[in-house]
Amino acid sequence: MILKVLFWFFFGIIIYAYVGYTIILLVIASVKKLLQLRRHQVQDDFLPEVTLLVPAYNEAGFVIRKVNNTLELNYPKEKLKIIWIIDGTTDDSYELLCRYPEITVMHEKERRGKIHAMNRGMKAVNSPIVVFTDANTMLNKDALREITRLFADSKTGCVTGEKRISESEMQKAVDAGEGLYWRYESLIKRLESETGSVMGAVGEIFAIRTGLYHEIKEDTLLDDFTISLMIARQGFRIKYAPHAVGTETASLSISEEIKRKIRIAIGGLQTLTRLTGLLNPFKNCFLTFKYISHKVLRWTVVPFAFPLVFFLNLIIVLTPYNTRLYTVLFISQCIFYLFALAGRLLHDVRIRIKALFAPYYLFVMNYAIITGFFRFIKGNYSVKWQKARRV
Questions:
Q1: DSSP readout, 176-211?
Q2: Are strands 237-248 and 156-165 parallel, antiparallel or unpaired?
Q3: N or C end of the chain, less CB within 10 A?
Q4: What pLDDT does 256 receive?
Q5: Which domains does the chain have, with CATH numbers?
Q6: Is-contact 143 205, C-beta < 8 A?
Q7: Using CA atoms, how far apart are residues 128 and 236, in angstroms rounded to an integer?
Q8: Under DSSP, is residue 89 helix (H, G, I), strand (E, B) or coil?
Q9: What is the pLDDT of residues 97-118, one digit of tens each?
């Protein structure tokens, strides 16, 4: 029956994208560890000169806290340069930053977007390593040391840190869902790093070899993803530093989180059309495998597979070809969507059992990708990003 074939095809893609791929990475990483294959070079005392680059727009509410955070980092002061690029800002960010002589402030009156600011800021970087971070992201004291130690390996071209969402014991749906999702993503990043390269960096905290940077188009939406994968395409590894932590608060509301996710989805699709070389398995087979498994499927097939699986299951249950297995699967899906609905109705209620909001966040994430897909097709998006408000 063709309906059953389609059902298992799309159901299999969902399971593979969220579970199967992770298991495959876990097996490969375990085999490598068992065979004691050569580990990448790491030196705790490798402390090259570093530039911390902070592109920001109207972040006056975070400036003082962020500056104090960076000045307290456990890294030799004579080897650390801090640059802020705040083009087009209309608040008092510039005045606040000028209070700190330790910081270089680059400011132009015209706002031309984050990518223009980054391209301009990179021209002022003369250190071998540059670390990108967001103004609203707080770094742990040893973040730079944890990152630079991985650059002791000459094959490492990019290092991504660990993004965390600040958590409290009692959390709302958006807080809990986002935090759980990033824990899951961190597991995948660790496994990808242990098996070669991570599939993209997180913009909150990542670093590259300065010499590998190439200016990217100013209409690029996902700068972190694009920059890091362009480096991977050059034959260098993207490594993961789990103890280099960048912490930020959750989105203020689910609508703000949806806005952010839609932007990411559009940027992901834009990247697919520009970095087509990553889809060529003959150039780097394993990199292509990771790229398709971790990113391409989630941005193109998986979001549409969820409703297809539900309706295909419903049709099968209503036909004479139904069996107990399909009934159980349909009931399970109904329970999943009921949990998602409960998360929507209780999204402002604080709760200890954070896992209850996982279905809600997963639903929201895939809804945002579908919305972003159609906006990308129509060209209905802006390069100038209005950042999501956070708690």
A1: HHHHHHHHHHHHHHHHHHHTS--S---TTEEEEEGG
A2: parallel
A3: N
A4: 74
A5: 1-391 (3.90.550.10)
A6: yes
A7: 15
A8: coil
A9: 999 999 999 998 888 888 999 9
Residue 290 identity (one-letter amino acid):
K
282 three-state secondary structure: coil
Order of strands, edge to edge, in the sheet holding 129-133? 103-106, 80-85, 50-55, 129-133, 205-209, 156-165, 237-248, 138-139
Least confident of 39-48, 107-116, 228-237, 249-258: 249-258
Residue 97 phi/psi, 5-degree rounding, is -70, -30
Three-state secondary structure call for residue 253: coil
Name every residue whose Cβ is closer than 8 Å to that of residue 88 and which is 6 or more positions away in sequence: 57, 108, 109, 110, 111, 112
Q: How far apart are CA 309 and CA 340, in angstroms?
A: 16
253-281: pLDDT as tens digits: 667 778 888 988 999 999 999 988 899 88
| pTM tops 0.85, yes or no | yes
Q: What is the residue type of 159?
A: V
- Which secondary-structure segment (H or E) carries 139? strand 138-139
Give, as one character, the DSSP assignment of residue 162: E
